[in-house]
Amino acid sequence: MAGTEERSRFLHLRRVSAAMLTAEQLEVRRLALDLARGEVRPHVEEWDRQRQVPQGILDAMAELGFMGMRVPETHGGLGFDLPTYLVALEALAWGDASLGLGLAVHNGPVTRAVHAYGSDEQKEAWLPRLASGDVLGAFAVAEGEAGGDLASLVVRAAPTADGSGWTLSGEKAWVTNGDRAGLLVVLARTGEEGDGLSAFLVARDTPGIQVVERERTMGFSAAEIVTVRFDRVALPSQALLGEVGDGHDVVADASNVGRLGVAAVALGIAQAAYEHALRYAGEREQFGRLLHDFGAIQEKLAGMALRIAQARSLLLHVSAAAEAEAPAEGIHPASLRAQVAMAKVAASEAASWIADEAVQIYGGYGYMRDYPVERLMRDAKGTEIHEGSSELLRMWMALDAVGDAGLS
Questions:
Q1: Full DSSP string of 354-402
Q2: Is 387 a catalytic site residue?
Q3: Active-site hit among 6, 145, 387, 391
Q4: For the chain (length 408 residues), average pLDDT per consecutive 10?
Q5: Which of 14, 26, 343, 399 has its CA 20 to 30 A from that of 33?
């Protein structure tokens, strides 16, 4: 009887969450959840051990349109707005976070950069291929010594002597999808210091590009996170994205979409951890009672549900504002950059806390690789780092808040 009551409470929480979504978003989420439940969930432990998301599941995603969620319909995509895209991405990440992360990079900053800054020729060349899944996208910005400090980047694109193109040299670190990708959006130095940065669209099969290392990460084990070396790679002039010196703006704009995507992945992890913990607490007995009959466990479950609801509401609110490219009303600080940072920090830290609590509810079993919450805890931690650490994003929140208050 107790298990039935807990199931009823869980379904009620899902109905409350669903009330915030449109009919279209509910249908998109249903389709994504069906795919995640049937084609992803049964294989995630194997993918985690083998450190690989099979090409077959990406092909299945492409067939259903999930590789082109943010590509406009005029270029063969689904043309989802940001909130709808994030609802689908959360559901797919609920199936597997590594898959979700790869899709977040492909559909997020890569697609955004091409669509927002690409010429008509660049859009025609790349957007239909990104939408169809013929090409997987990667975003190559960070470097080993510089991290996310754009002013310290050293990868350089030098103009050729005859002005017909560029020569790209250096290494980019932590490039998700980097080995399998067909298109890399690369940020490189074209000026001496500061904002002398430009973005380039680089075909992966261009001579001189080499993957030199596959990272062994704590979580997101099946995600393809690599170091990419550019050894005097010859690029045509048409590879430049936007204008010379636009790199900082391209990355700042694309990263907003990327951070919202990581927030959605974090929510998928959090929802999965919560469901596992809720189910386990309704099955496991200790001292002659089910775990969920203990007040301490009930407090944990309530806290998990509360944090998911808070983070999801913030993400949907901020993503609607980002779709309109204006800060959301009633959420401070006022800049869109800071509000996106808030949504990402809230979701990623909620995921880590919820996964940790799920491990505690499982007890000794939670610490074992044979149980799913151990993997979810490792994956959750990665969302606090990918697309900007929580510390960096908090700094931006504070700086924008101070500036908005007229205190700077």
A1: HHHHHHHHHGGGGGSTTSHHHHHHHHHHHHTTTTS-HHHHHHHHHHHHH
A2: yes
A3: 387
A4: 42 49 92 96 95 95 96 96 97 97 97 97 98 97 86 92 93 94 97 80 96 91 95 96 94 95 98 96 88 91 96 95 87 87 97 97 88 95 94 91 66
A5: 343
